[in-house]
Amino acid sequence: MGGHRGRLDQPTMITAVSPTRTATMIRSVTVTEFEWVPDGSRHPLRKFAVDITTHDHQQGSYVALWSAPPLAVPQVISAARLLIGQDPRDRERLWNLAARSLAKHDRIGYGALDIALWDLAGRSVDQPVWALLGRQRDRLPAYVSTVSGRKGSGALGSAAAYADYAEDCVNRGALAYKFHSFPGSDVADEIAILRAVGERLRGRADVMTDPGKGLDTLADALRLGRVCDEVDAFWWEDPLRGDAAPAHRILRERVRTPLLITEFVRPLEHRIGLAHQGATDLLRADPELDMGITGVIKTAHAAEALGIDLEVHAAGPAQRHCMAAIRNTNYYELGLLDPELGNPLMPPVYADGYAEDLSAIGADGCVPVPPGPGLGVAYDRDWIDSHAVATHTIAD
Amino acid sequence: MGGHRGRLDQPTMITAVSPTRTATMIRSVTVTEFEWVPDGSRHPLRKFAVDITTHDHQQGSYVALWSAPPLAVPQVISAARLLIGQDPRDRERLWNLAARSLAKHDRIGYGALDIALWDLAGRSVDQPVWALLGRQRDRLPAYVSTVSGRKGSGALGSAAAYADYAEDCVNRGALAYKFHSFPGSDVADEIAILRAVGERLRGRADVMTDPGKGLDTLADALRLGRVCDEVDAFWWEDPLRGDAAPAHRILRERVRTPLLITEFVRPLEHRIGLAHQGATDLLRADPELDMGITGVIKTAHAAEALGIDLEVHAAGPAQRHCMAAIRNTNYYELGLLDPELGNPLMPPVYADGYAEDLSAIGADGCVPVPPGPGLGVAYDRDWIDSHAVATHTIAD
Predict the structure, then answer these.
(1) Relative to the CA of B106, which of A55, A70, A235, B361 has its CA 20 to 30 Å away?
(2) Contact residues for B178 (Cβ-Cβ < 8 A; gap 6+)
């Protein structure tokens, strides 16, 4: 039992002397929860923004997009308390404080905070995050990642409809196409869609499938894997429940298509441990899920040391800056796109035209990396404020 | 990207037909957050109770004690929605629904719900949970697990004070003693306390230490490990940051004392994976942290299949019923005890004298397993209601 945790029934608070004295200390963190009703939906969706402010009025901001849902907010607030009074340049020390403080938890709540610290760091020296990290590339080869369809209705209601949309995406510049099938992940549906998409794009673009861990048995996963090989898929992703190494070694032995798991695996050492165990060909990391830009870059470096590729999960400015600074990576996940609605789940929070839909893809099949300071995006504060439903301010 | 999750920005809702038709369906889940100021503290502590009620007025209850802190409440509420309208006997199916719904998260929120389902199951047939699981034992050999001391003050302010308390615990029946040192986990303090305790108890009782992942370097962990060997410790627990397999294999190769990790590792397959990788000698599971009694028993069975022992983490009625039904286990963690305050962090929620302090230890050095139906404890509803600060009701 972690006695320190038990003692407080709160995340462990660890204090340490900052390596350097400075007048630049974090004064407050504001977490703004906001809601809006996405196009095509009748239900409001809730996301949140974080703003970190120093005593000398530097600011770093981030709006969590995909992977840090409302479940994470209590963790964000808890981890934000660790930041107050700290030097915002101490990103490594603060990352380690948060990792220990939330050690028993998934630690998702620290992702948005680390990203905002990187935004602050970039803005404070008028440089983009990719420049602080060190640039490898500024064009990101993009694949379209679909929403889940609805069997029998709508624009992704059948295998043929998935194939039609795949063709449309490739015609509009996408270099590859990954689908999420109908909720429930029936293996027959998975196979039918994969065959239809694979045949439609054969020789034109890469194809990937992502059952999102929907298959309950290894046998069903192997059935799907056979079809991945048949259509020469670029990767197959999270076919099977859980992340057990023995099962995924069997999949890798029996299926030729490269396997991608670890989107559902949180701490760094377990993601890397699965690669050590021969349980995956490619690794995942996500700045919102995996403790920020710092967490993604650590995963990328560990993957590089293993000689394997790290695929950054999901779309967003933090993902773009990460991928810009990683050599051993292949594709930017432009998602989740809907044939009729574009990117309906992306909150309309950008004041500068930053987009995560097909319009972002250039003639080279790539999306750009924002060139401005920090994350390089301008948030629409009026929109966020007018949709705010709860605000939490953590301050000294 | 898990398309289903992204689509809803909520845990995936999965529906499936219940295997049998029944009139016994879950009607509501109530989550009651309560606060009280523990003895010796000036700050209120918040815990929560869950109550699951069926249409025919069966009820299952659990008060989360240690490991499901307020950070878990949004997960509890989210997972509770999965239970409404379901047959409460479908524990395996519901466990799998929750595991998928919270797949990217630590899943801690489902622990209290699974425990309450077991309580309901036992009460519905007037049998204790251990009888439903199948009993292995009804006396649980106990070790005292201390709170963290405060260096230089209080009853655990020095190495000698830890040794004095160790001797007192053994004189009062404890078979073993595990300490949590001062917050901050300075390796010199860890070593001084371990030497003092080890010398005091040599030949009389087992000694364990738990730095709670406080040491930042493998080198410091090895220094502590040498002293574990010197005092012939029964196990050493979570000495080092993170749960990386290579580092823990080094510790196991260089230190003779059995190593216990995985308290900080959440999904089942990663706990077992660390044993597969030779990274630990003993495994941990906790009904609040690891998806309930169901999660602990699965871990115990997987450990049994590996031929190793599963030590149930923390004190409480759910832990007692689990340990009662497991062969491959050694000690009950009676904690977190304070020489002056008893068990100050345990909420005083029992109406029947159920205790988690030295008074629970019998002449055989063991604590009992509650014999009554379900978890076998009676909650003090008046106390809980009078300390309630928030109530969430999830119903159809």
Answers:
(1) A235
(2) B143, B144, B145, B146, B207, B208, B209, B210, B237, B333, B335
Q: What is the pLDDT of residue B3?
A: 39
CATH architecture of the region A132-368: Alpha-Beta Barrel (3.20)
Give me the residue from B2, B69, B212 closest to A9, CB to CB.
B69
- Residue B57: how many other CB atoms lie within 10 Å: 7
Q: Which of B4, B103, B212 sits opposite A264 (nearest CB)?
A: B103
Q: What tokens does B39 get? A: 């003895």
Predicted confidence at residue B37, as pLDDT, reads 96
Residues of chain A with CATH 3.20.20.120: 132-368
Q: Of all residues in chain A, what percent carry a pLDDT higher than 90?
A: 91
Please say if the pLDDT value at position B5 is more than 50.
no
Instruction: Check if A342 contacts B (Cβ < 8 Å).
Output: no
B-contacting residues in A 215-234 (Cβ below 8 Å): 216
CB A103 within 8 A of CB A387: no
In whole angstroms, give the CA distance from residue B14 to residue B19: 15
Mean of the per-residue pLDDT values of chain B = 94
Query: Looking at the partner chain, which of A3, A75, A245 has a beta carbon nearest the beta carbon of B71?
Result: A75
CB within 8 A of A307, min separation 6: which ones? none
Residue B109 is encoded by which pair of tokens? 């929120």
A8-126+377-395 maps to CATH 3.30.450.40:
no
A262: left (phi over 0), alpha (psi -120 to 50) or beta: left
Phi/psi region, residue B344 (left: phi>0; alpha: psi -120 to 50; beta: rest), is alpha
Between positions 356 and 395 of A, the ones with CB within 8 A of B are none
Residue range B3-126+377-395 forms a domain whose CATH class is alpha beta
Q: What is the pLDDT of residues B221-249, one digit of tens each?
A: 999 999 999 999 999 999 999 999 999 99
CA distance B45 to chain A (A): 7
Report the 3 state secondary structure along B160-196.
HHHHHHHHHHHHCCCCEEEEECCCCCCHHHHHHHHHH
Of B212, B242, B269, the CB nearest to A243: B269
A66 CB near a chain B CB, below 8 Å?
yes
For A33, half-sphere exposure in the C-beta direction (CA atoms, 13 angstrom radius) is 16
A333: chain B residues, CB-CB within 8 Å: 1
Give start-end residues of each CATH 3.30.390.10 domain in chain A: 8-126+377-395
Token match 């106990």: residue? Answer: B142
DSSP code of residue A128: B
Give the CA-trace dihedral at B17, B20, B21, B24, to 10 degrees: -100
Q: Does A175 touch chain B (CB under 8 A)?
A: no
Determine if residue A389 is left, alpha or beta; phi over 0 gives left, psi from -120 to 50 gives alpha, anything else beta. alpha
Tell me which residue of B47, B210, B45, B190 sits closest to B144, measured CA to CA.
B210
Is B67:B108 a contact under the CB 8 Å cutoff? yes
Going from the C-alpha of B178 to that of each of B143, B251, B289, the distances in angstroms are 7, 20, 20
A277/B276 Cβ within 8 A: yes
Q: Do B1 and A268 touch (CB under 8 A)?
A: no
* Distance separating alpha carbons of residues B241 and B233, to the nearest angstrom: 20
In terms of DSSP bridges, do strands A45-54 and A59-64 run parallel, antiparallel, or are they unpaired?
A: antiparallel
